[in-house]
Design brief:
By secondary structure, the protein is α/β, with parallel strands linked by helices. It has 2 domains: 63 residues, Ribosomal Protein L25, Chain P, CATH 2.40.240.20; 164 residues, SPOUT methyltransferase, trefoil knot domain (Alpha/beta knot, 3-Layer(aba) Sandwich). The protein is built from 7 helices and 12 strands. Strands 6, 7, 8, 9, 10, 11 and 12 form a 7-stranded parallel sheet that branches. The protein has a 5-stranded mixed sheet with strand order 1-3-4-5-2. The longest helix is centred in the middle third of the chain and has 21 residues. The chain is elongated.
């Protein structure tokens, strides 16, 4: 069943407007009597029956509240070094599917991609749309936020996660598994991934100086678009979120 996010508090009668209304009417061709899922911005998820279809406006009667949650008990954030081509699009889509709450695109020293302010703002708008589409498709209860492009120093000063993990290809002593086993009750985790060119030593030093733990993701060097997904999946498995 199709899911739509509404920027308003839950009400027994709700209205969908904008591009979502166009999608319902002209793409999905839903009609009065058809049902959709809606997620209000106060976190309430409900089953809604379409009562009226008009140009730019879909009216709903919310008939049943949804129970349970599709969100992980661990708040996940991903700091991804800017990657070239469509890799960032892919990373954002898959990270949303895995359950991240926030994605930080990070301008790093060895990144191939360098964006000026206008380019960065345009990219973030695109990435936010990708996050919203992915959230709808995988039945998330919220739309993850794609933060503005920023430096690693700025991110480390502001990000509130209890546990900060830096995936570093030169780390040979501390494994991700060992760190997760040592923090079984953690409720928020930030994963930091370098770009194609890898992390600069100064970036590693800055991260560890603020409490981030440098970890190895295994014996093989992973591509930037793979490393974050491996780390996120491992955290979810350790927390019991994958249901295995």
């Amino acid at each position: 069943m199709h899911r739509f996010f509404l920027p308003k508090a839950f009400s027994p009668v709700m209205t969908i407007t904008g591009m979502d209304a166009h999608h319902i009417k002209d793409v999905l061709r839903l009609k009065a009597g058809d049902q959709v899922q809606v997620v209000a911005d106060d976190g309430v998820t409900a089953l809604g029956t379409i009562t009226a279809v008009a140009s730019g406006s879909i009216s709903l009667a919310c008939t049943r509240l949804a129970t349970g949650s599709h969100e992980s008990r661990v708040r996940l954030a991903l700091a991804q070094g800017l990657a070239k081509g469509e890799k960032m699009d892919w990373v954002i889509q898959k990270a949303v599917e895995l359950g991240v709450s926030t994605i930080y695109p990070v301008a790093m020293r060895h990144a191939v991609v360098q964006l000026d302010a206008a380019q960065a703002a345009k990219k973030v708008q695109r990435w936010q749309k990708i996050a919203e589409t992915a959230a709808k498709q995988c039945k998330r209860d919220l739309i993850p936020q794609v933060a503005p492009v920023q430096t690693l120093d700025k991110l480390l000063q502001a990000e509130p996660s209890q546990l900060k993990l830096l995936a570093y290809e030169s780390e040979q002593q501390v494994s991700l598994k060992a760190v997760l086993e040592a923090h079984p009750a953690v409720t928020s985790v930030l994963v930091i991934i370098g770009p194609e060119g890898g992390l600069a030593e100064t970036e590693v030093e800055a991260a560890t100086a603020t409490g981030a733990i440098s970890v190895s993701l295994g014996r093989r060097i992973l591509r930037t678009e793979t490393a974050g997904m491996v780390a996120l999946a491992a955290i979810l498995y350790a927390s019991g979120d994958l249901g295995l």
